[in-house]
TrEMBL record:
<dbReference type="Pfam" id="PF13977">
    <property type="entry name" value="TetR_C_6"/>
</dbReference>
<feature type="domain" description="HTH tetR-type">
    <location>
        <begin position="11"/>
        <end position="71"/>
    </location>
</feature>
<keyword id="KW-0804">Transcription</keyword>
<dbReference type="InterPro" id="IPR050109">
    <property type="entry name" value="HTH-type_TetR-like_transc_reg"/>
</dbReference>
<dbReference type="InterPro" id="IPR009057">
    <property type="entry name" value="Homeodomain-like_sf"/>
</dbReference>
<keyword id="KW-0805">Transcription regulation</keyword>
<dbReference type="InterPro" id="IPR039538">
    <property type="entry name" value="BetI_C"/>
</dbReference>
<keyword id="KW-0678">Repressor</keyword>
<dbReference type="Pfam" id="PF00440">
    <property type="entry name" value="TetR_N"/>
</dbReference>
<keyword id="KW-0238">DNA-binding</keyword>
<protein>
    <submittedName>
        <fullName>AcrR family transcriptional regulator</fullName>
    </submittedName>
</protein>
<dbReference type="GO" id="GO:0003677">
    <property type="term" value="F:DNA binding"/>
</dbReference>
<dbReference type="InterPro" id="IPR036271">
    <property type="entry name" value="Tet_transcr_reg_TetR-rel_C_sf"/>
</dbReference>
<dbReference type="InterPro" id="IPR001647">
    <property type="entry name" value="HTH_TetR"/>
</dbReference>
<feature type="DNA-binding region" description="H-T-H motif">
    <location>
        <begin position="34"/>
        <end position="53"/>
    </location>
</feature>
Length: 212
């Protein structure tokens, strides 16, 4: 928890407030969001919100901190498997929402991209969003490096490939969320498999990516 008093909030109240913030941003959008919109989703009083947080921007900061903490936990508890299996599982999860309810998955990502669209107005939001991306790219890069070390993947620049994969994921997310292209994540998953993953494999019959 990031705000000056948030550690004093009971855990169940804190989680409810985070969920209320997610629902309010999802339904209202960030630009038009007010504390009243979050309060409408929150079972306790608006005074409690104002006691701990100085307006919607601080609540959004808290939400991003919560999501970053959740990402840390997910990465720390990721499956113990060979690098290729881990990479495929990560791609299935982030593009096909294989490990959580599909509606909830896209609700959270819709909120993240909604906040991202307004982040140029708030340096702290920019910092936290960049940290979310950097954490995920570092995780992918570590999987790729493990695959290189174990002789599964060709000797590529893992950071560069991880960033490329992340950019393709983000593009697919944006096309689905903002443009209604529901097929975009599945298409991106196939593209990443055909043009990146299959070419990473040592002794692949397709052209390798060893020059990257």
């Amino acid at each position: 928890m990031a705000s000056k008093n948030s550690s004093e909030i009971p855990e169940d109240t804190y989680v409810e407030l985070i969920e209320a913030t997610i629902s309010a941003v999802y339904e209202t959008g960030y630009a038009d969001l007010g504390v009243r919109d979050i309060d409408a989703k929150f079972s306790k009083s608006r005074q409690l919100i104002h006691h701990y947080f100085d307006g919607k921007d601080e609540l959004i900061t808290e939400l991003l901190v919560y999501l970053l903490s959740d990402e840390h936990e997910e990465i720390a508890s990721s499956m113990d498997a060979d690098p290729l299996t881990k990479l495929n599982a990560e791609l299935d999860n982030i593009l096909l929402s294989t490990y959580m309810d599909d509606d909830e998955f896209w609700k959270v990502f819709t909120v993240v991209y909604e906040i991202q669209a307004q982040a140029h107005h708030n340096a702290e939001h920019q910092r936290l969003l960049n940290e979310l991306t950097d954490e995920y790219v570092a995780h992918l890069s570590e999987i790729l490096q493990d695959g290189i070390d174990e002789g599964i993947f060709d000797d590529v620049n893992p950071q560069q490939i991880a960033m490329l994969i992340n950019d393709l994921i983000a593009g697919a997310h944006i096309r689905k969320i903002h443009l209604g292209q529901d097929e975009a994540p599945g298409n991106a998953r196939e593209t990443i498999d055909q043009l990146i993953v299959s070419r990473l494999l040592v002794n692949s019959s397709t052209d390798t990516m060893s020059g990257i």
